[in-house]
Amino acid sequence: MSMFHFPTLTVADEVGLFPFLDEAPATAEDVAKKLSLGGRATEALLGVLASLGYLVQHNGKFHLPDSCKNYYLQTVLTTGVVYCILCERLHYRTQHC
Description:
Layout: H1 5-15, H2 17-23, H3 28-35, H4 39-51, E1 56-58, E2 61-63, H5 66-73, H6 79-96
Helix pairs in contact: 1-6, 3-4
């Protein structure tokens, strides 16, 4: 399944998901409306990102975990930055598992 992680992060970056969720937590419906995405696609995207630990869901709303805000918001994300985030997470997992 890891072959889907990078494309999922790339899509989230390209549609502006992380800066949007930094403004305030939002439901999947709010995200779909704001980013002009289909409902089912939005739910899938948010679900994958939450299962990977890039988002947190609480009371039906998704938000950025504090530990991840530095990666997403200190600089404009590019594919290279997203790749570095993914590599760092994979490296952490192999070092600590």
